[in-house]
Amino acid sequence: MAYGEIYAETLQEWLEQEDVHLIDVREDEEYQEACITGAHLHPLSHFAPDQLIESLPKDKQIDIHCKAGGRSAQACQILSAHAPDLEYYNLEGGILDWIATGHPVKSGKD
After folding, report:
1. What is the pLDDT of residue 109?
2. Beta-strand runs (E) in 3-58
3. What pLDDT does 97 receive?
């Protein structure tokens, strides 16, 4: 499996276990409004998969998310094509679902 889908509850468990590296592929303006604590911004519009892959930790789950899940699914496909030996997880419903299920966000300006 190169990439799969996860839900907000799974991501919350991974965050509690400190077992996840978060990648937010929304645009800077969206990230500044609200982001998941610890997320690293890599907008899909400026995506550099080879550079990103080199920086990924090998000992953590890799969550990729966006607003609703579409752009992050694209990012997962791109990353899978460049490094099929790694596993990537798309947050189903994106940050909108994360917020709707009561999980916290912070300002990306912090």
Report:
1. 78
2. 3-6, 20-24, 40-41
3. 97
Report phi then psi at 106, rounded to 5.
Answer: -135, 170
How do beta strands 88-91 and 61-65 pair?
A: parallel
The residues pairing with 65 across neighbouring beta strands, listed in sequence order, are 24
Average pLDDT, the chain: 94
Q: Report the candidate in 92, 95, 110 with the shortest Cα–Cα distance to residue 36.
A: 95
User: In terms of Cα–Cα distance, which of 3, 40, 32 is closest to 108?
Assistant: 32
In the chain, the amino acid numbered 33 is E
Catalytic annotation, residues: 66
The answer to whether the CB of 89 falls within 8 A of the CB of 63 is yes
Confidence tier at 2 by pLDDT (50, 70, 90): confident
Distance CA 29, CA 76 (A): 22
Tokens (6 digits) for 100 = 């709707």
